[in-house]
């Protein structure tokens, strides 16, 4: 009996403390107001100038309501829900004109217009592979003299590059001279004449294969010239150096046109076509844009980056673009076809959902899921979810959306048939008051739990298993973790002994 009286006293004190706490926080009306509302609820609800109370909801968040004020099993007053703040699962929000001005809410209409869409990519300047020329002798020899002796030097078509000496070249030219004299001498012997003609043809064929002339004032040497206008990209030549057949001594590139290789993401490939115009911007000249055109889409895809190379060609006669430069590419897209669009600022895109806030009436806003198409500089295409002329919020929409999500969440408190929220866990400090092994439950004296807005009280919890309370004694300070499983079921998952000194300090 003594123990039961003590328990009843603790419960009463906890209920009184909880009511005082909730009244002070504004979640519950004062005690006198509760009695007044209970005495004349209809008059209070309908009197002019007063807020109308629709119902009272459970203070613990359980899905039960009451048309009149009452208390729950722990003595906590039910919380009134007013008509002007009643939540609904649609998330619609009503905002007063004064608050609209304070938030700076602005709206715009969804309209049909051509989209200022552009596909953006990054790339790099590369040499036009069709304008690269290698100077490679087809015979063996030595470099006698260099006429262009530095990489990066500009050259013109026909300009002398280097002069070489080759014993093979000298031998072939001598053979051709001898064969020419024998043919011109007109040998009486037909066999000798035929041999001379074959020797002459073989010598000429060898020189033609080497791409050199038959002779000249200096038959022992030959000077190689530039095959095109451009710059020397690579020079391996050194005076006196021996070279072998096929060795690339000079590499010359014509940079009057260059390529840009841009990486386009897989999902954007359908928007790229050969012949499409583009604008290229480089970091070195941020105020200047270079005109380009798509000339080729490569048939491969980089599996790591999910991009495909796209080749663009640019005029570079002024020489501003250099191979290796990093560039930003903007491909014109969107076309002249009209599309339903809204300003970019109207779209709230979290990655999991895409919504706009549609104006549902004077001061009312409702989240509207939409399907987004192409994105432009200032507008985005809306494929589904809106109609032309619908008003949407373009400023302060994130604030209204946050309140809308809160309204939709609160709607679950007033609808018993709504789906239960995912279980949440909380931590608290307290001590065991009584343990009931038969029902696998425990009565806990716990301190205030701010996360649930609970005052310090004694209440019953379920135990996740009998092992949770094994070895723990009533009255000793404990830290415990419990789970809200809905419908008023709170189950302790873990309990452990707390430092008595720390618990005492926290209690004071």
From TrEMBL:
Sorted UniProt keywords: Ion transport, Signal, Transport
UniProt key word Transport: yes
GO cellular component: membrane; outer membrane-bounded periplasmic space
Pfam families, alphabetized: Beta-barrel_RND_2, BSH_CusB, CusF_Ec, CzcB_C
The organism's place on the tree of life at top rank: Bacteria
Domain CusB-like beta-barrel residues, every copy: 257-333
Molecular function via GO: transition metal ion binding; transmembrane transporter activity
Name this polypeptide is given: Efflux RND transporter periplasmic adaptor subunit
Taxonomy of the source species: Bacteria, Pseudomonadati, Pseudomonadota, Betaproteobacteria, Rhodocyclales
């Amino acid at each position: 009996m003594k123990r039961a009286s003590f328990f009843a006293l603790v419960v009463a004190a906890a209920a009184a403390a909880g009511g005082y706490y909730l009244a002070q926080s504004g979640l519950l009306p004062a005690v006198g107001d509760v009695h007044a509302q209970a005495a004349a609820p209809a008059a209070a609800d309908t009197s002019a100038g007063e807020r109308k109370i629709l119902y009272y909801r459970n203070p613990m968040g359980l899905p039960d309501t009451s048309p009149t004020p009452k208390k729950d099993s722990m003595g906590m007053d039910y919380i009134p829900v007013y008509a002007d703040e009643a939540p609904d699962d649609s998330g619609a929000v009503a905002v007063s004109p004064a608050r609209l001005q304070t938030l700076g809410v602005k709206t715009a209409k969804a309209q049909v217009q051509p989209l200022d869409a552009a596909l953006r990519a990054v790339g790099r300047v590369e040499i036009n592979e069709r304008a690269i020329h290698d100077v490679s002798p087809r015979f063996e020899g030595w470099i006698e003299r260099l006429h262009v002796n530095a990489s990066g030097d500009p050259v013109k078509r026909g300009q002398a590059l280097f002069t070489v000496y080759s014993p093979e070249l000298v031998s072939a030219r001598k053979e051709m001279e001898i064969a020419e004299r024998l043919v011109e001498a007109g040998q009486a012997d037909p066999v000798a004449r035929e041999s001379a003609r074959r020797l002459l043809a073989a010598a000429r064929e060898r020189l033609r294969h080497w791409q050199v002339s038959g002779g000249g004032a200096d038959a022992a040497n030959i000077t190689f010239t530039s095959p095109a206008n451009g710059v020397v990209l690579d020079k391996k030549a050194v005076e006196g150096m021996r070279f072998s057949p096929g060795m690339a001594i000079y590499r010359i590139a014509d940079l009057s046109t260059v390529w840009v290789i841009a990486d386009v993401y897989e999902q954007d490939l359908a928007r790229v076509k050969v012949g499409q115009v583009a604008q290229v911007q480089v970091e070195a000249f941020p105020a200047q844009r270079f005109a380009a055109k798509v000339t080729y889409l490569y048939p491969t895809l980089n599996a790591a980056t999910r991009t495909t190379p796209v080749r663009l060609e640019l005029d570079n006669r002024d020489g501003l673009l250099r191979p290796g430069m990093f560039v930003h590419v903007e491909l014109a897209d969107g076309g002249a076809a009209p599309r339903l669009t809204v300003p970019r600022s109207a779209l709230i895109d979290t990655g999991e959902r895409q919504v706009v806030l549609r104006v549902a009436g004077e001061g009312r806003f409702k989240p509207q899921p939409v399907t987004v198409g192409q994105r432009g500089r200032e507008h985005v295409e809306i494929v589904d979810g809106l109609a032309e002329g619908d008003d949407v919020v373009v400023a302060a929409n994130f604030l209204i959306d946050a309140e809308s999500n809160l309204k939709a969440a609160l709607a679950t408190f007033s609808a018993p048939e709504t789906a239960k929220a995912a279980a949440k866990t909380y931590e608290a400090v307290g001590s065991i008051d009584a343990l009931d092994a038969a029902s696998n439950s425990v009565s806990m004296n716990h301190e205030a739990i701010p996360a649930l807005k609970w005052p310090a009280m004694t209440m019953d919890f379920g135990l996740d298993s009998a092992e949770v309370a094994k070895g723990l004694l009533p009255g000793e300070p404990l830290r415990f973790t419990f789970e809200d499983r809905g419908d008023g079921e709170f189950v302790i998952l873990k309990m452990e002994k707390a430092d008595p000194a720390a618990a005492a300090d926290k209690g004071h």
